[in-house]
Specification:
Blueprint lengths: L12 H13 L13 H7 L3 H6 L5 E3 L5 E3 L7 E7 L5 E6 L14 E8 L4 H16 L7 E7 L5 H9 L12 H10 L1 E5 L5 H15 L3 E8 L6 H11 L7 E5 L7 H14 L5 E4 L6 H12 L12 E9 L8 H26 L8 H13 L9 E7 L1 E3 L2 E3 L17 E6 L11 E6 L6 E8 L22 E7 L3 E9 L7 E9 H4 L7 H11 L5 E2 L1 H20 L5 E4 L7 H8 L12
Parallel strand pairs: 5-6, 5-8, 6-7, 8-9, 9-10, 11-16, 12-22
Antiparallel strand pairs: 1-2, 3-4, 10-21, 11-17, 12-15, 13-14, 15-16, 17-18, 18-19, 19-20
The structure holds NADPH dihydro-nicotinamide-adenine-dinucleotide phosphate and the ligand O=C1O[C@H](COP(=O)(O)O)[C@@H](O)[C@H](O)[C@H]1O.
Length: 599
Amino acid sequence: MATFSSPHCPSSSSSFYSSYSSESRNGNLGLVKISSISKKSAQKISVSKRQARNNPNSNVVRMQDGAVATKITPVEGDIKSVETLKDGILSATSQESNDLSGFDVKKDESTVSITVVGASGDLAKKKIFPALFALYYEDCLPKHFTIYGYSRSKMTDDELRTMVSKTLTCRIDKRENCGEKMEEFLQRCFYQSGQYDSRDHFAELDKNLRRHEAGKIANRLFYLSIPPNIFIDAVRCASSSASSANGWTRVIVEKPFGRDSESSAALTKGLKQYLKEDQIFRIDHYLGKELVENLSVLRFSNLIFEPLWSRQYIRNVQLIFSEDFGTEGRGGYFDHYGIIRDIMQNHLLQILALFAMETPVSLDAEDIRNEKVKVLRSMRPLQLDDVVVGQYQSHTRGGVTYPGYTEDKTVPKDSVTPTFAAAALFIDNARWDGVPFLMKAGKALHNRRAEIRVQFRHVPGNLYGRNLHGTKLDQSTNELVIRVQPDEAIYLKINNKVPGLGMRLDRSTLNLHYAARYAKEIPDAYERLLLDAVEGERRLFIRSDELDAAWSLFTPLLKELEQKKVNPENYPYGSRGPVGAHYLAAKYNVQWGDVSLEE
Ligand SMILES: NC(=O)C1=CN([C@@H]2O[C@H](COP(=O)(O)OP(=O)(O)OC[C@H]3O[C@@H](n4cnc5c(N)ncnc54)[C@H](OP(=O)(O)O)[C@@H]3O)[C@@H](O)[C@H]2O)C=CC1
Ligand SMILES: O=C1O[C@H](COP(=O)(O)O)[C@@H](O)[C@H](O)[C@H]1O
């Protein structure tokens, strides 16, 4: 039986238990009526809480280990029978009895192996192993799991453990038994050295995995944390020599998914030679960020936002990403891609699609992704006139000299690769016709931030205009800010009467500041995404048609920039970026929200 007992874990059946008891009492959730099942039985079922919650209308709910339970009809009666079908699939019908004591889900008989391909690399150390540990700490991993590191470097299991242990932290202060948990986790990590294009080496891995799986149903997740030019080799070898024989096999693919429409299509075609689309989990880690996931909740669960979510009330939308460091250490990779491919075509565009999509039929992955694709396909490809590119230059501040982009040894001296870009995008559909969606992304800027800014139109009639002290009409409109990072917050700028006998208005803020409101630390995006991949939840992963649509928007522009060798505008390291970004915004009568005096 899987032990999803921590209330912290999104898949915890104890929290599942409590949340579903109340939902089923209300009779609006077509799922197992957990309120009538003993907590012990509920734990046995261990249906993923998130999956269940996200799919109230779907016919299946998936269990933590990827097995699937059919939906229980929403009746006031309880579970009549639950039977285990092949591969741990459950089926249940309703009846009066609530006795599930004999119920055996056979979860104990399945395992999950997670192989980090490219385990010696930066991403594996920085993000993947720490996220896996956090999931383990939170009791979110199945009872039977094994983690394998795979790369060419020669290492023993102990050396991998030493390497991994250096990057593990107990994220929250005063955590209990963290050292103990780390040690337990490390004992579940193993290492296999091998080439990425060797079937024999993957067959060795298979042999080792099988040893750990010990005859149970073997579910296998491969995380490709390697350079993209070796993705296909690794997938070919993993799929032919190390696929699961009786469970699922899934592959997480890291970006970049190509450089343009053609290379992306070639990559997809290559992957699909060996994998079905539903085995491919294309990661965009911004989709795993708490406030990005909350976007749909904000829109679709609060009556006050959705009616305003259109050209009728929204003047413009801004998607802003900035980092206060340069490409230090990743210049070689970055120069081949540039900021438009690195941030805009994926992270910011994905946020835009979630922001602008129509209400999905349900929270099923396919329903959400269908709506996102529709938005992407309604957009105009970017025009060079609507884009500003920049590159950071060396700058000395406070006695410290910060290097310019081309001073990086791995970057050609004459590189025109943009480290900054601003762009205006448009969605040609009924909801968003004429509303500029402005994107801005840059490295080596004055701060590190990712946010969504929604600037609303001004109030017709302007009754209080003259009482708005010293501000112009467009500067006194409402603005909703979703600060994705750091210091997560959602705040709404409103006009408010300054207390007193007179009638003077000022700009004030209704602020949902996460650190003040929620005691719990926000999980890293990779935790959420890894857990989803283990659970088979695809909502936060990119489907191939989404990817095609995203590339179609950016490919003509990227080609034009490269063919014309458009010179980026210089900006000093640590500044707010090139001034051209302001002219671009002004062209659409927009002022960047992050540079206004109020910020
Ligand atoms: N690092 C990051 O922050 C981010 C990374 N990514 C993407 O994630 C993936 C992994 O990133 P990262 O860990 O930084 O990558 P690395 O460059 O660190 O590569 C990972 C591992 O792959 C192997 N490797 C590297 N170059 C080659 C090569 N030319 N041929 C064969 N094997 C090679 C190395 O292992 P060994 O020599 O032991 O085999 C290396 O440890 C990449 O696709 C990257 O674009 C995406 C977002 C952020
Ligand atoms: O994908 C990428 O994202 C990081 C920024 O991620 P964050 O979660 O730290 O905001 C960026 O530095 C990198 O260039 C890019 O490849």
